[in-house]
Amino acid sequence: MLSFNGISAAALIAAIAFASPAGSARAAPDSGSDPELFSLRGQSTFVLQFHPSFASPYRGANSLDPAARGEETFDATLFAGARLSGIGELYADIEADQGFGLSNTLGVAGYPSGEAYKIGASTPYFRIPRLFLRRAFGLGGEQEAIALDANQLGGSRLSDNIVVTLGKFGVTDIFDTNLYAHDPRQDFLNWAIIDSGAFDYAADAWGYSYGAAVEWNEDWWTLRLGVFNLSRVPNSRFLQRDFSQFELVSEAEARTGIPGRPGKIKFLGFFNRGRMAEYERAVEAARVLGTAPDTALVRNYATRPGFALNLEQQIGSDWGAFARVSANDGSKEAYEFTEINRSVSTGLSFGGGQWDRPNDRLGMAGVVNGISRSARDYFAAGGLGILIGDGRLTHYNPEEIFEMYYRLALADGFATTLDYQYIVHPAYNADRGPVAVFGFRVHAEM
Fold it and tell me: What is the pTM of this model?
């Protein structure tokens, strides 16, 4: 059994499940809306992934290891929320992380685990991924119930409203969400399936940033706008903090759907403004120096735009479909997320009620990722990126990934998942792979 300094994964999960406080306090019964005043909730997630050996005539510094390998990750989070009179809702998450992604989270642009961070550690360490204030301003409409959840106090608010979020949180907590594919603790695991692959969202090495977001919600539509700090240098654990390097992101959502079945269409646009390199300049400098190209040598203050189209649609009473299409400026290096300049994903998600297991879930999805001509030239010359770099790229092909999972609910708030991914042309390299990745996940909520 896998262990963390002698402590088994199962023991750690059990400890979190029984020791983490949970619950909430309510206002006095005569308060009308009976809002939650504060809450404490917890979660823990363990992911084990393994791939057998695969064909690899060569490898580079950022390649997926061709030998049979297995790695695990574990995290446990305490979600705390408090309602501050006249100010809003304050939330703080405290998290312990441990483990490594396959090949230290390298080797595939559409990386196979959203639970694997770019910073790995063999022993658990603590951090505060979120610390933010949220306030809603009612504009009218009906009173709608707000269910108690992680980073969400229970209560009610007017359906037409403006919600302001300020502090440290994830850009994808608010933008690019999808009912069927967005949570690596509950549904799919692949980076390019749970998020739009070409959405290079502002984030430190763990996926969080400092910023502000405003959401304007009306009857059938929502408009969102956010500004966030980029990392000090591309793919860094340290954020800029003074907004001299930043991301501006907007999203328009229309709640539509087929008759009797809800659905959403979202269009997102973003641009990153900071010191970043053009691939062509990096390759030209490498020719002069006689070395492999290095983007760090040719960075200038520039802008990198992109967009994402995001759809979700309920089809049956307990199942639905989703799709995402995204693209960005491929002339410049990826700043935060991964080396994907265009991506198309689609999938289906089935509830287990159809086979008398109402809390189970079955999902299947596919994604195709691609990079620009200038990015191909950069990696062909031996350049390294955030996640990929095989030392050469003689035969380029789009990265094609299929994922399927089955989540088995064993008890209220406790589930295990079997996951399978098949990756063709990892890191866009037709000379390597294909790779089969087998996964096992245990998730508990308290």
Answer: 0.91
